[in-house]
User: Fold this.
Amino acid sequence: MDPRSYLSLFRRNPDFRRLYVAQLISFGGDWFATVALLGLALEFTDSATVASLVLVLQTAPFFLASPYAGVLADRLDRRKLMIAADVGRAVVSLGFLLARDSSTLWIALVCVALLSIGAAFFEPTATASLPNLVEEDDLPAANALIGAAWGTMLAVGAGLGGLVAGLVGRDAAFLVNALSFAVSGLLIWRVRRPFKASLTAEEQAVLEAAGGMGGLRRSLKETLSLVRRSPIVGALLTTKATFGVGMGVVLLLAVFGEEVFQAGDAGIGLLFAARGAGALVGPFIARRYMTDDDRGLLRTIAVAIGAFLLGYALLPASPTILLACLCVFFAHLGGGAQWSLSSYGLQVSVPDRLRGRVFSFDYALVLLATTLSTIVAGVLAEFVGPILTLYVLVAAVALAGLIWLVWTRPLRRPRLVRAESAKRI
Assistant:
């Protein structure tokens, strides 16, 4: 990993630099708030199920809003849509300050759901816009940096969030979150490059007709049609969801930190920070495989699945929280790599006029899987404990990964991959 290529991109492209810093700040604020919210829920209710509800509300509304968000990302000015999402989330974040005890915890839960809806309009739109903000040769490096931004601020934001919540109080973490969205919106406003390519008159007419539920059906039909024509798109669309079936482990990190290792908010922060550190390093390792070789993309994703499984399989055997952090780091080394690889593959395979909808669909799939996994994790942890629950989730990822490997086997054969690449749109 040569840092000079990344520094060069920052120097040459101030618009990408603004987008990167905006997401860096926003992600950091998110994790400040998440650690504080999980600690709040566990303190007020002493229930893993209620804590799981925090994570469910970070994903389920995102899933429900994604079809609308995808259509708007392809129809409207993506830059303005992202700014509006940031402004709305800055205001909503202040609502966390009103949750003072178990009787007002519902206010925080409502705010979590509203922030999730805002994220549905921001995050897939940002990913879909990236190829328009950088040169083609810079796209792999840009994806590695954006993927690492999430991991960086999960590591830094979760770690500092746990410390701030423990030393200064959770209100400080909530205020940081609100401020982060405001700063992100300001930086996006300063970006001058167009966030999407110009549409032909025919394409614009099709998008303007895509309104209401009929428009959503047409949007989904067009996305599925693309998947049928290009199996590599289907393989990449299901990659994140394969990991998502086990992402209830994120809830268990809070339970392990609070109950198994008895380290409170600081322990939760450390485990989340280890997750972020893995997600930080993973995209840079994956960077070398971001080429037009689809076979290489898919084979590296298969290795990433194995890393995720091994890391979490070893977690319950950890005698200390520091060794547990090492296991979590290794698992999310794979998670961070696959996220960047699948995003890059979709960016170069999908035309810009469809990219907003495809990425909204991509995010919706993973968040649906994550939501169901988190619900299962919360319920199981109450009845059988966190360790057995963790192994159930590891088994679920192993099964989903095996299905994905069998399904994508023809695409990982060199001759068929080359033929598939020739069919790209």
The chain is about 85% helix and 0% strand. The first helix runs from residue 3 to 12.
